[in-house]
């Protein structure tokens, strides 16, 4: 199991990014609201970040900026790019983006995947070896000779990922890789992304598919209107182990803490608990809730609208709960306060 | 009369008459050369117009579309005024020579190549361009790949331009002068021979021209029907 937050130097560091589309009539836009405004995002080597958000939340635009396809008006993007050689200095290398509906060239699958090596004038033997290896990774070895435009959606997506991987990028960007494709391809892609991350590649992908996001992500980055918004759930890594009884299961976190969850999810690796579903109290309360922990407040953050996000350390795991201003005052919550943390087994969703 | 001429014309075609051959070769030579010239200039311009944004792009596209309908005699007049002894390029002595016809026909073909290449390529998926950029292709490599992905549109543009110049008479007449064994083409020969009442050669040449024109149209139809997958236009 990978560490949740890598301590290594960031593979990607975004600061103060602002982007707005130029006005259509060519006139200088009058300080239009930026469609993407990301103040800070850091990603370590081997981490998977998943952008989630509605249509129009700026995920695709953000990915295109990171790929160097759109130029931001201001801000800094620093990327470690040891994997991607540039072509004759014509264009400095950038993270490689796989589009939501990838464009495959009207030629064979092999030629598609070999193209990035061909434009870099890689020697024939190495080109062949690296292309076949990328095809193998995506389970496409049998399709090398097929006419790419005739493939199914899932196969096309896998070819597009192989075509990006053949460059061995240190940062891979994927826009909705699992939309409109078959389950088999989704599983293949998830496995490949996990293996890539384990080999040190930083992955940023956007998705609508929350289950896929929770399964894969080291970091979930919720977005709305082009901005990062606070995450509203706790994501815990671990394993769902044997059932406590026929109704209640047990999820053992990587930190060793056991929490109760709905039964019948053995093998799940991720537990998700909404921050709204966590009750904080000064004394232990007797309720139907099966999970009763104790936690030490480590940070408090205002969310606006008289809501606060309280970060607690409960026997090694970090949980966040949302509380109102009134509760903050009644419980005198501040860093260092010891609180009882209660949530129902049914509030734990497993993926 | 027409029937007997037709019989003689077929005889002329079968016998491989040297004058008929010379005229046909001239025609094809001028048409192929001018189309190649127009393609060399027009295809890159069409691609650039399709993939890049630049100021006044819409105006340039409109002008190019409008020029597709350029009357051949106007092109003849324009190039004539440039190449005539008193014109700016008069010193080259090109007027009434094969290069003059080729230049004139290339001017005629250029807007067709540009407009049709632009039109075909701008219908390609916009993600093609972004894909090429993110995969690290250089500007030149991107241009090549876009032309390759839109190869059917490019080929159609070239064939259409060829069909236009091989059958035109204004430029060939005004700039070539219809000089026997030198600049006489199928169209100028038909115009002259018909005016003289010599139908045999006219009909034989008409048959050749129709075969060429039908061949081009057949090729175009074949290209339009041949759409291997989403990469084609």
Structure report:
- The complex is a heterodimer of chains A (351) and B (233).
- With 351 residues, chain A is of the alpha+beta class.
- Chain A contains seven helices and 19 strands.
- Chain A has helices at 59-66, 109-119, 124-137, 153-165, 183-198, 210-216, 325-330; strands at 10-19, 36-44, 48-52, 74-79, 96-98, 171-175, 202-207, 219-224, 227-228, 233-241, 248-253, 258-262, 270-274, 279-281, 291-304, 307-314, 317-324, 338-343, 348-350.
- A six-stranded mixed β-sheet of chain A has the order 5-6-7-3-8-9, with helices on both faces. Chain A has a five-stranded antiparallel β-sheet with strand order 12-11-10-13-19, with no helix packed on it. A five-stranded antiparallel β-sheet of chain A has the order 14-18-15-16-17.
- In chain A, strand 15 (291-304) and strand 16 (307-314) form a beta hairpin.
- In chain A, helix 2 packs across helix 3, helix 2 runs parallel beside helix 4 (153-165) and helix 3 packs across helix 4 (153-165).
- The radius of gyration of chain A is 23 Å and the shape is globular.
- Chain A starts with 9 loop residues before the first strand and ends with a strand.
- Residues 1-7 and 85-92 of chain A have low confidence and may be disordered.
- With 233 residues, chain B is an all-alpha fold.
- Chain B has a domain at 28-186: MetI-like fold.
- In chain B, 76% of the residues lie in helices and 0% in strands.
- Chain B contains eleven helices and no strands.
- Chain B has helices spanning 2-15, 18-51, 57-67, 72-83, 98-122, 126-134, 139-149, 151-166, 170-176, 186-196, 199-225.
- Chain B is globular.
- Chain B starts with a helix and ends in an 8-residue tail after the last helix.
- The model of chain B is unreliable at 229-233 (pLDDT under 50).
- The chains are: A alpha+beta (351), B mainly alpha (233).
